[in-house]
Design a protein that fits this description.
- The protein folds into 2 domains: about 190 residues, Muramoyl-pentapeptide Carboxypeptidase, domain 2, CATH 3.30.1380.10; about 170 residues, Phosphorylase Kinase, domain 1, CATH 3.30.200.180.
- About 25% of the residues lie in helices and about 20% in strands.
- The strands form 4 sheets. Strands 4, 6, 7, 8, 9 and 10 form a 6-stranded mixed beta sheet that branches.
- β7 and β8 form a beta hairpin.
- The longest helix has 22 residues.
- It is globular and about 60 Å long.
């Protein structure tokens, strides 16, 4: 369709990578790991052998690593997603705020794997950039009904999302209910596997024709629903029926405030030529805060926002966001980062990417599924 051609031109003009081949990992059953293996008798006699020095060394290393992990868990720190810390004399690194471990004032350096660019809350998935189905992604997908609160409905027990997305949506709907008393939103559709997208696309083609299917259903492998970060919403009023979020008056608060909780309307009517998907008033996506607020403030869809962030780097001008003042775009490298939220882009390198994190801050790192990483660092006012 013309919308898709326009986006291809836009992508080429802005330096996006060319369309990638769809990658997919196999389930254990597909790979042949679902077969039962004959158990080994626990009573079988074994010849006693002298201790192996190599095994002893491995055990000692494992114990040391396990102890470090327990230390970090006990101290309330968490390792960054898909990254490894580096400690060096040139660039000492601090965990968490840095003050807790005696490394206050020292910058943190992460080593990010090549695959990490395809993971995180800010990944861009569209017909130009497919979802790569990371091997451990399925572990985060769970039934919405198992973790939802009582402030919204879910269509059925088969509806799934990332657990983290459910938790964020719970916070949003709790606030929604507190402000309005409304609890009739319904998650109509969430996570879809590759095969489910194949079946859905075929169903739309059979029912409405291929042109209609291309306008409203992503090609298998290129759907945001694969990520577990996106959901289709409607309003379910028992005894009355189903309504659109867009036109149902009690949903005004949700439409106007969802970005404060990290959710965006993914396919706005005025961005069709960029997203390549017709207006979908029901499709919401979690990107996190403050990114959803910035996108709303600057009227950017996700494609535009990913491109916009490339202008901000650790050693160049960095984007500074303040909850009260909004975006300040003038924080140069020599200016100290003292409070607020700092956002910048780190281009992906072949193999591993070194990612620098400011001292004494909390942070999150997300791949963009295209060509790099987005760092979100926060400091509270002292």
């Amino acid at each position: 369709m013309s919308e898709r051609n326009n986006w291809n031109d836009h992508a080429s003009a802005n330096g996006f990578y060319p369309q990638q081949e769809i990658k997919r990992t196999y389930t254990p059953e597909e790979a042949g790991h679902g077969r039962r293996r004959r158990p080994v008798s626990r009573y079988r006699r074994r010849r006693r052998r002298p201790p192996n020095p190599g095994v002893i060394l491995i055990v000692l290393i494992f114990v040391a690593v396990f102890g470090v992990c327990i230390y970090f868990l006990a101290s309330g720190r968490s390792a960054p997603a898909a990254g490894t810390d580096l400690l060096s004399t040139a660039e000492s690194t601090g965990a968490g705020t840095g003050e807790e471990n005696g490394l206050a004032g020292k910058e943190r350096v992460l080593v990010l794997s090549e695959e990490a660019v395809h993971t995180g809350d800010l990944i861009l998935v569209n017909y130009a950039y497919p979802y790569t189905f990371p091997a451990d992604a399925e572990e985060e997908i769970t039934a919405v009904s198992a973790y939802k609160n009582d402030k919204y409905y879910v269509r059925d027990n088969n509806s799934k999302l990332r657990r983290s997305t459910i938790e964020k949506f719970n916070i949003l709907t709790e606030a929604y209910f507190a402000a309005t008393g409304f609890s009739s939103l319904q998650v109509n559709s969430g996570y879809r596997s590759y095969q489910e997208q194949v079946d859905l696309y075929a169903e739309y083609v059979a029912t409405n024709g291929e042109e209609y299917a291309k306008a409203y259903v992503a090609d298998p492998g290129y759907s945001e629903h694969h990520t577990g970060l996106a959901m289709d919403l409607n309003v379910y009023v028992p005894g009355e029926g189903i309504y659109y979020v867009e036109s149902y008056e009690p949903c005004a608060w949700f439409r106007e405030n969802c970005e404060d909780y990290g959710f965006i309307l993914r396919y706005p009517s005025e961005k069709v030529d960029i997203t390549g998907i017709n207006y979908e008033s029901w499709h919401y996506r979690y990107v996190g805060t403050p990114h959803a607020r910035i996108m709303e403030e600057k009227d950017l869809c996700l494609e535009e926002y990913i491109d916009f962030l490339r202008s901000y780097t650790y050693d160049g001008t960095r984007l500074l966001y303040d909850a009260d003042m909004g975006v300040t775009e003038t924080l140069a490298p020599e200016e100290p980062f003292t409070e607020g939220t700092l956002i910048y882009f780190v281009p992906a390198e072949e193999g591993e990417t070194r990612c620098r994190i400011p001292a004494d801050c909390t942070y999150a790192v997300s791949g963009n599924n295209v060509d790099g990483f987005i760092v979100t660092a926060e400091k509270a006012a002292s």
